[in-house]
Design brief:
The complex is a heterodimer of chains A (158) and B (143). With 158 residues, chain A is mainly α. Chain A has nine helices and no strands. Helices cover 61% and strands 0% of the residues of chain A. Chain B is globular and about 45 Å long. Chain B contains three helices and eight strands. Classes of the chains: A mainly alpha (158), B alpha/beta (143). At the A-B interface, helix 1 and helix 8 of A face helix 2, strand 6 and strand 7 of B.
């Protein structure tokens, strides 16, 4: 069954709320409430509408924000992890590497000296353009790398 | 000036709802509201910009078949239409005024790059950036 524009508009509200405060915790019940959709259906409906499950979407927003802070500020990595919604520096570092292929400090070293012209476009659009594209779950990416080994993955922030 | 863009339009799910939003809440004026059967050509204008009309168009016949119209409404509702920018003199004051009137803000005013910007959506899902006009537009920052 196709999704009605009214439902999509309400799902968009949940996406907007994550965009507005990606550092906050967004458990399904909170998102479902924003969208006025039952908890049982929310994740599936969101994924259908936006092509990615809600928590993976949130992850892209957090990593994107972290990359911007690493590049544009002198804040310590710990502070950036905290500001972008992680409770644990270890989880932040691991997921950051899973997604970007390098550690936060490596990315900072590589990105910081490069001049950029991002001022010319509205911030939200620039952020969207720099958002990591998560086609697969981070846990799956990690699993593939582990070369067939089956591990129990942390589901924090996924 | 008599050459340039005169009308650019948005797709909206309901033209009466859109009219109420853009006129009563945002302060636009109706420029043209002409009906021909089921078709309604509706444009509004910013009071400070008399040479430009913003069209508020409902996907549907005779321009679109039912399936296409539905797809367009879905795309709008997902927030997937192109970005829009509204320039204001005072972003924080506009934010206070508009949020008090029930405009759905997606981003509170933020100071950055020498100006202030906020974000809101119309009832259909079209996303706007509201940016304060900089007195002296900053030039590209040195790295």
């Amino acid at each position: 069954m196709s999704q009605s524009p009214e439902l999509l508009r309400r799902l968009l509200r949940a996406k907007d709320r994550m965009d507005g405060a990606p550092h906050e915790a967004w458990p399904i019940h909170r998102l479902a409430q924003v969208s006025a959709v039952s908890e049982a259906h929310f994740a599936r409906q969101f994924a259908r509408a936006f092509g990615v499950p809600p928590h993976r979407y949130l992850l892209t927003r957090r990593i994107e924000r972290a990359i911007a802070l690493l590049r544009d500020t002198e804040l310590p990595v710990t502070e950036i992890a905290y500001q972008t919604g992680w409770n644990s520096l270890g989880t932040f570092g691991r997921i950051f590497r899973d997604i970007t292929g390098e550690s936060p400090s490596e990315l900072r070293t590589r990105e910081q000296p490069a001049p950029h012209g991002r001022k010319q476009a509205p911030e939200c659009l620039v952020r969207a353009a720099h958002r990591p594209d998560l086609k697969t779950a981070v846990s799956e990416k990690r699993r593939r790398k582990a070369d067939g080994k089956i591990e129990i993955q942390s589901t924090e922030a996924l | 000036m008599n050459q340039g863009v005169s009308v650019a339009g948005l797709y909206v799910r309901d033209q009466d709802e859109a009219l109420a939003f853009y006129v009563d809440k945002l302060g636009f004026r109706v420029h043209t509201d002409a009906r021909n059967g089921d078709y309604r050509w509706l444009t509004v204008q910013h009071p400070g910009q008399p040479s430009f009309q913003l069209g508020l168009f409902r996907p549907g016949p005779p321009m679109h078949d039912a399936a296409t119209a539905k797809t367009l409404c879905e795309v709008v509702a997902k927030g997937a239409m192109p970005p829009l920018v509204l320039v204001v003199d005072d972003c924080r004051a506009a934010y206070e005024r508009l949020s008090a009137s029930g405009v759905e803000f997606t981003q509170e005013p933020v100071d950055r790059y020498g100006t202030v910007d906020a974000g809101f959506r119309d009832p259909s899902g079209n996303g706007w950036k509201m940016i304060e006009s900089a007195a002296n537009p900053p030039s590209r920052e040195a790295p």
